[in-house]
Design brief:
Largest sheet of chain A: none
Shape of chain A: globular
Radius of gyration of chain A: 20 Å
Shape of chain B: globular
CATH class of one domain in chain B: Alpha Beta
Number of helices of chain B: 14
Structural class of chain B: alpha+beta
Radius of gyration of chain B: 23 Å
Largest sheet of chain B: 5 strands, mixed
Structural class of chain A: mainly alpha
Number of strands of chain B: 23
Helix content of chain A: 55-70%
Strand content of chain A: under 5%
Oligomer: heterodimer
Number of strands of chain A: 0
CATH architecture of one domain in chain B: 2-Layer Sandwich
Distance between the termini of chain B: 30 Å
Strand order of the largest sheet of chain B: 3-23-22-19-18
Distance between the termini of chain A: 24 Å
Helix content of chain B: 25-40%
CATH topology of one domain in chain B: Dna Ligase, domain 1
Strand content of chain B: 15-25%
Largest interface: A-B, 30 and 26 residues
């Protein structure tokens, strides 16, 4: 299939997934604020850190307040990771591949975008934010279901799933990183104290509380980390996402899992291995934040490798050493991976 | 809905003759329409429109933000062309396209017709659409004008005239196919009893034609693609629709690259050679190295590959020269020159301001004429003499005197009309007809076409940008 088409379907899914994740963790945080005693200090800046836009946010808004963060993450047209921007990008990608995806998928994306746009135009949308965030989450769920049921599970479909799952792994790991850092600022205290409400909120940010309870029962920070990063069966856990992403990648290339013919397969394989052979206690002992930082670097490498392997075919490529593909500086201080704008008009 | 109050207004009405009797082929439709209540027709009209919206047969409105897509207004009363009338039009179109293709080939190669003085060389060589980079080109199988959408009109005398040839990248065929889908649901019984030629064959014939004009003597399936300017183009729906119907890739300029002397597309499995490009972007944007250097839509180096005979472009670049409205005036002479035949389909009588005598006539009769600039379309650069003010006519007279090469004039035609549902009643509205012609192994004229209708009362302008809609066109089997 055309590289441009593969790229469009990959990003269409990433943006849809991104919108859903932003909606979920903003919603959970709003809910949490209602439960915390006054003076506890509102925790709005971590939300911006979760999308990797801290610098851009400070430059434009200054202090992180409820209002400024909500605006930045929901309806800010200038912010590339606001829900509105994500839906707009998902729709623009979908529009360029209408003959590839099913018309039901197109209609769902189109309707979702129009719904968010309509909320953005309404002054009072944030009076009942929960309704809005629920609508965004459901729009994404519906899209995933429609994609699953109306499109052949062919190469294009696998590019979509690859994008969606890498995005989800990225967001889950960031939520864990940011929250864990805040809840336990002193590494010495890791595993010693916790606030049940806040840890529950962290699980809710990934729609994981109920499933966590079934698996582990009581809330314990290492187990929460273990569940969100290393669970094999929970569909938002990083390991689950990477395992399925890897399967889609190999469905695309036709290479058996365990072998790697392309840079994309090597990088995604490395990424998966980091979770497959991990142990929570060791991770926490050697520093969760450092571990997740390293994960972000590898994830960026994987995205970069997918881009180079499938999307960025250039006539001169054969002669260039492959390491060239990774020579670009990887800004691990987030910044968020985003689609390259190759349109010249 | 009764036709008692229906008034043909002194125009040629497609459905009723001067005595108010249905013309051949229309009797059943007229009876069926008369039986329907106003509400029933309104219901069918609404159902047809919503079906088109759901299919997504939309065009983009320029200058609005993303998400403004509209359907072309659609009227459920079809326009019917009886078999014998169609047979003549079809013959005339084949003859005309044959001559035009020979003309384009001639002027980019031997220029015999210019040397023989049949068409003035000055006019051809000064045409803005005469592309010097195309001189000496020899397209595969000698075909330049692969897809043509000729605009036909009927005057008060009921005869078909050719208004424009449209040899570049005519659009609208997707509406022909989609309108038909909708009409089969709207009037199934009338449709069935009327013995209408199907139009669904178009995508298959288009693909066959494109495969036929591949370069060289390659074996195996040639790789054929549709080249679009992208989702922001007003006809993007059609590009995407045709690619989907033919089951081939829809590519943008950035998907293509010239490599090792061939055109390739970038796929997830590497570069793949492209043999035939059905391009829906204008000549001047095709290749920034040959034409407009600021083009972001084309493929650098494409014309070199084309010149070397290693890729086919449909239509060939340069065909626009015959769309020049001054050159149009000479088409009947081309038919005679190349084929030794009289043109079956006449031109609209055209005065060429380049000629001193004809210019004098035009300037003396501006209040009776329609004046058109040689290279404009879509209603731009035009004077509707009878409706214009004296000041507008004077201004146009000056333009003509300053640059006579650039203008032609035609009498104002009284375009034929078809009953159309307007505010719950049937009223006559003016129409034209655009059949689609494919030039491959043979010349194929799709039995059908786009009937555009001017929905505004009294208007002769059928363009969708100016309040025009469309109707299904039923060509009857003999």
């Amino acid at each position: 299939m055309l590289s441009r088409v593969a790229e469009a379907i990959y990003w269409m899914n990433r943006y849809m997934e991104r919108a859903e994740n932003v909606a979920r963790f903003v919603d959970v945080n709003l809910n949490l604020m209602l439960d915390l005693p006054e003076g506890f200090g509102e925790q709005w800046s971590p939300l911006v850190a979760t999308t990797g836009d801290t610098d851009a946010f400070r430059g434009r808004y200054g202090e992180a307040t409820k209002e400024s963060v909500l605006k930045f993450l929901t309806f800010d047209k200038e912010s590339p990771n606001s829900i509105l921007s994500c839906l707009r990008m998902a729709r623009e990608n979908a529009r360029s591949i209408r003959e590839i995806i099913s018309s039901e998928m197109w209609e769902q994306i189109n309707k979702s975008y129009l719904m968010v746009k309509e909320h953005a135009a309404r002054a009072k949308s944030m009076d009942t934010p929960h309704d809005f965030f629920t609508a965004v989450k459901q729009a994404s769920h519906l899209f995933v279901g429609i994609s699953y049921l109306t499109m052949s599970h062919n190469e294009a479909w696998h590019f979509g799933r690859l994008g969606r799952l890498l995005e989800r792994a990225d967001k889950t790991s960031r939520i864990v990183d940011v929250k864990y850092y805040i809840l336990l600022p002193d590494p010495a205290e890791v595993g010693s104290t916790y606030d049940d409400i806040q840890w529950s909120a962290l699980l809710k940010s990934a729609s994981a509380l109920e499933m966590y309870r079934k698996r582990h029962g009581r809330i314990s920070p290492p187990k929460v980390v273990d569940y969100l990063l290393l669970d094999r069966k929970f569909p938002r856990a990083a390991r689950y996402c990477l395992s399925k992403a890897q399967r889609s990648l190999h469905a695309i290339t036709g290479t058996p899992i365990g072998q790697a013919e392309t840079a994309a397969e090597r990088q995604v394989g490395l990424l998966y291995a980091q979770f497959e052979y991990a142990d929570t206690r060791e991770i926490i002992k050697s520093g969760l934040h450092e571990y997740l930082d390293d994960f972000q670097v590898k994830l960026n490498n994987a995205s970069e490798a997918i881009h180079e392997t499938f999307f960025a075919l250039r006539p001169l490529e054969e002669s260039a050493p492959e390491s060239m593909a990774f020579s670009q500086s990887q800004s691990q201080s987030q910044g968020g991976q985003s689609q390259r704008q190759s349109r010249g008009r | 809905m009764r036709f008692d109050a229906y008034d043909t207004g002194g125009f040629f009405d497609e459905m009723f003759d001067a005595e108010g009797k249905p013309r051949p082929g229309y009797a059943l439709l007229a009876r069926k329409l008369a039986e329907q209540s106003v509400e029933e027709l309104a219901r069918r009209q609404a159902a047809a429109e919503s079906a088109l919206m759901n299919i997504g047969a939309t065009f983009n409105v320029y200058g609005h933000e993303a998400g403004t897509e509209k359907i072309m207004p659609f009227d459920i009363v079809p326009r019917i062309v009886p078999a014998d009338e169609w047979a003549k039009a079809e013959k005339g179109l084949k003859q005309r396209i044959t001559a035009l293709n020979l003309f384009v080939n001639d002027i980019y190669n031997d220029q015999k017709i210019l040397k023989d003085g049949v068409v003035p060389a000055d006019i051809v060589l000064s045409a803005a659409s005469f592309l010097k980079p195309c001189i000496g080109l020899k397209p595969p199988k000698g075909i330049w004008t692969h897809v043509v959408g000729t605009d036909l009109v009927r005057d008060r005398d009921g005869l078909f005239y050719v208004l424009e040839d449209n040899l570049r990248t005519p659009s609208g065929v997707s509406y022909v196919l989609e309108n038909r889908q909708v009409m089969k649901r709207t009037f199934p019984q009338v449709f069935e009893a009327s013995r209408v030629h199907p139009v669904d064959i178009y995508p298959s014939r288009l693909l066959e034609m494109l495969q036929h004009v591949r370069t060289g003597s390659g074996t195996g399936q040639p790789n054929v693609v549709v080249l679009t300017p992208g989702p922001f183009n007003s006809a993007y729906f059609e590009h995407s629709f045709l690619a989907q119907q033919m089951g081939i890739e829809l590519v943008e300029g950035r998907d293509l690259v010239v490599r090792d002397g061939y055109v390739h597309m970038r796929t997830t499995r590497g570069f793949q050679r492209v043999d035939v490009i059905y391009r829906r972007i204008d000549d001047s944007f095709l290749d920034p190295e040959t034409f407009r250097p600021d083009s972001m839509l084309g493929v650098p180096g494409l014309m070199d590959v084309y010149r070397a005979g290693r890729v086919t472009l449909a239509n060939a670049p340069g065909t626009g020269v015959a769309d020049d409205k001054v050159i149009y005036a000479y088409v009947p002479k081309m038919v005679k020159y190349y084929l030794g035949e009289d043109a079956i389909l006449p031109n609209v009588p055209t005065f060429v301001c380049f000629d001193d005598k004809e210019r004098a006539h035009v300037l003396a009769n501006l209040d009776k004429m329609v004046v058109k600039a040689a290279n404009e379309s879509g209603g731009y650069g035009m004077l509707m003499g009878p409706q214009a003010s004296q000041a507008e006519r004077d201004a146009f007279g000056d333009l003509i005197r300053k640059n006579p090469r650039n203008y032609i004039a035609q009498p104002l035609l009284g375009l034929s009309r078809v009953p159309t549902i307007i505010d719950g009643a049937l009223e006559g509205r003016h129409v034209d007809l655009r059949p689609y012609i494919l030039y491959g192994e043979d010349i194929f004229v799709l039995p059908g076409g786009l009937t555009r209708v001017a929905l505004k009362k009294g208007s002769f302008v059928v363009n969708s940008s100016q309040g025009g809609g469309s109707k299904d066109t039923w060509v009857l089997r003999g």
